[in-house]
Write a structure and sequence with these properties.
It comes from Cutaneotrichosporon oleaginosum. This is Asteroid domain-containing protein. By secondary structure, the chain is mainly alpha-helical. Among the domains are: about 170 residues, no CATH class; about 180 residues, no CATH class. Helices cover about 45% and strands about 5% of the residues. Strands 4-3-5 form a three-stranded antiparallel β-sheet, with no helix packed on it. Strands 6-7-8 form a three-stranded mixed β-sheet. A two-stranded parallel ribbon has the order 1-2. Strand 1, helix 5 and strand 2 form a beta-alpha-beta unit.
């Protein structure tokens, strides 16, 4: 999060001419649009490409599982795939940056006199390192790396590659000094090989003892601090667990699982606090279906960790206040969290700790199995307790009463009373968010307390009722409801921008308030992009046309709009207003169109923006709905003050007289 704030600071401190050029958006300076991932998922769905979305962490393990099921390869830019492939039967890993197309060599036929055109020997074959070929006759060259080849090269068992990668720090090792890196790999592999080869290392040792021996041998200092050694061993074990492939069984994060099995799609008992009724089960399944199509991305992180929600940054100027810290924005997210809590039950810290403990027991068992180690007595008890708690969860989810140690069925009312008392004492329904504080680059926290549980809009209600709940949560006037459904999120987001900017600029002297011309420009840009979203674009266009001048004020306005659209999107996801019933905000956003129209220029057609006189009435209706009751929050565009020219003092004019007056004072 701090890295994105630093990028924003660099962006706003760079001259507009420099940051507007194509070279200003390369390498570490590149800034992705706020809805790039959603647009990418929609593009894949339109091409009937199967997609999988993981609830937390990286999707590397899921990619390996899918590749093994299909009997294919993994293409990427992460060396972790070589390690993850040790536990799956995939064919290999292919780095993106090493894919090459070899252009065909030109051959010349003999002419009538028997002579042929020849070329010099040892001509370098032209290769192109890119994914798409430039000609139809090019030859594809794919370097393939396999876990088996790496294990043979290092003379290690295949199941020890995850531990090797954890000890080396695979994701954090610099590739600048190749010789030093190879020496480290050989040294760690030799130490691990010698430790594994000891008699009884596979039967009696636990995972902790094995890792502890390796770390102790690799320790460079003669004196070993046991406390620091234990920290390093724990860190190595945690890093090794990251290489455990996801289980094919139904995960405990339903309905936000990465891949839903048959049991997950029909049973809701995985939820920690779900009501066991047909209505709640239907809601949970609706959330699962929406998640499988790529929605609920923002809501998933809030449900998983309500005590640690990092808000997305929208390229705001660090010198100004955060748009997502305003009252209207907070109220929108409070309504979102309340809806999710009523439908699914948020994983509050007390419940999340229990879930994390169960997950840790499961991961420990998976690590032991992955390293082919026999669990010790303590580990066996841990695994057994994890399986027992899982069985009890399934029993309660099926509507059955849990059994005590003696095998008798406990009284349900007593259990419910004890559970309610514990939850009331331990659980606070407060969501902790982390965002930029004030007019600085410092990241701080703020707490949002949810309202008391009450009557909320049913997520199985008709579309009109859910749209009404969407507008009510955003304090939208009645005029917004008369707009087309695909224009309502835009109108609500713009109203949030106007009112929030007025709250941070009560006197109207700081220039943060929106102007009517800017509101009309944003509506015209968003409406033109939405209407032309499905049109084909002309690829043969000068790239310079797609890079308008990024003025500081225009960039700040676009950042405010992006932040407001993020809040409206999260609320729409909570109300299950997906693509079939709503619209995703990325269809509004075209940086070229927004910055061009805010600067008073016509956007190029290559950016996807369209214009038609038939849309003028719709544009006027949207602007009128946006400004309904918000006219006083607008600012006035002041013309630049002209400096008055300083009037130079003129010399006094000589008095009029005769031609010989100058001689009157002369002495004769």
């Amino acid at each position: 999060m701090q890295a994105s704030i630093d990028k924003a600071r660099l962006f706003y401190t760079t001259r507009p001419e420099s940051r507007s050029s194509p070279g200003g958006q390369r390498g570490d300076k590149a800034i992705l649009p706020p809805f790039a991932s959603l647009a990418f998922a929609a593009a894949l769905a339109s091409l009937d490409v199967e997609t999988v979305f993981v609830p937390r962490g990286e999707a590397d393990g899921q990619c390996v599982v899918i590749a093994a099921e299909m009997g294919g390869y993994v293409l990427g830019l992460d060396s972790d795939f070589v390690i993850l492939g040790s536990a799956a039967d995939m064919k290999g890993y292919i780095p993106f940056d090493m894919v090459e197309w070899i252009e065909p060599t030109t051959t010349h036929e003999a002419v009538g006199d028997g002579f042929t055109t020849t070329s010099a020997k040892k001509v370098r074959v032209r290769s192109v390192s890119r994914l798409l070929p430039r000609s139809s006759g090019a030859t594809l060259i794919l370097p393939i790396y396999t876990s088996e080849a790496l294990a043979r090269r290092l003379r290690l068992p295949l199941n020890m590659l995850p531990l090797l990668a954890a000890l080396l720090g695979n994701d954090y090792t610099s590739s600048s000094d190749t010789n030093y890196t190879l020496d480290r790999v050989d040294r760690v592999a030799r130490t691990l090989r010698e430790t594994v080869a000891r008699p009884g290392s596979h039967n009696a040792d636990t995972a902790y003892e094995l890792v502890s021996r390796v770390v102790r041998k690799l320790h460079a200092q003669a004196y070993v601090d046991e406390r620091k050694l234990a920290e390093k061993v724990d860190g190595a074990i945690d890093a090794t667990i990251q290489y455990v492939l996801p289980s094919p069984q139904c995960c405990s994060l339903y309905p936000f699982c990465s891949r839903l099995s048959e049991g997950c799609t029909t049973r809701a008992w995985r939820l920690p606090t779900a009501l066991r009724s047909e209505a709640s089960a239907s809601v949970v399944e609706a959330y699962a279906a929406a998640r499988a199509t790529g929605h609920l991305d923002i809501m998933t992180r809030a449900w998983l960790h309500p005590g640690r929600v990092y808000l997305r940054d929208a390229l705001e100027n660090p010198a100004g206040p955060s748009a997502r810290a305003g009252r209207i924005s907070i109220n929108a997210r409070r309504a979102t969290y309340a809806i999710v809590d009523a439908a699914l039950g948020m994983r509050w810290p007390a419940k999340g700790a229990q879930n994390d403990e169960a997950l840790e027991r499961t991961e420990t068992a998976q690590l032991m199995a992955g390293l082919s180690l026999q669990p010790s007595a303590d580990d066996a008890d841990t695994v057994e307790n994890g399986e027992k708690s899982q069985d009890e969860a399934e029993t309660v989810g099926n509507g059955e009463k849990p059994q005590s140690e003696a095998g008798t069925v406990e009284d349900k009312s007593a259990l419910d009373d004890a559970e309610d008392g514990t939850q009331e004492a331990a659980v606070r329904r407060v969501v902790t968010e982390y965002l930029r504080q004030g007019s600085s680059a410092r990241v701080g926290s703020q707490q949002i307390e949810l309202p008391a549980p009450g009557d909320s809009t049913s997520l199985l209600a008709p579309l009109d009722e859910r749209l009404a709940a969407f507008r009510d949560a955003l304090d939208a006037p009645a005029s917004v409801s008369s707009l087309p459904v695909d224009a309502q999120p835009l109108a609500c987001a713009l109203r949030m921008c106007i009112l929030s900017a007025a709250e941070t600029d009560p006197g109207g002297h700081q220039g943060r308030r929106w102007r009517r011309s800017e509101v009309e420009a944003v509506v015209r840009a968003a409406l033109g992009c939405m209407k032309g979203w499905d049109d084909d674009l002309d690829d043969d266009v000068d790239a310079e046309e797609l890079y308008p001048l990024l003025e500081t004020r225009n960039a700040e306005l676009v950042a405010q709009l992006s932040a407001a659209l993020l809040d409206t999107l999260t609320l729409a996801q909570a109300l299950l207003l997906t693509d079939g019933a709503h619209i995703t905000p990325y269809v509004y956003v075209s940086g070229t169109a927004l910055h061009s129209l805010l600067s008073g220029a016509e956007p190029p057609a290559a950016c996807g923006w369209r214009r038609s006189r038939a849309w003028e009435q719709e544009l006027e209706d949207i602007v009128a709905a946006v400004l309904d009751g918000a006219e006083e929050a607008l600012g006035v565009a002041h013309a630049p003050k002209k400096k008055k020219k300083k009037q130079r003092a003129e010399a006094p004019a000589p008095a009029k007289g005769g031609r010989f007056d100058m001689l009157l004072d002369e002495m004769i």
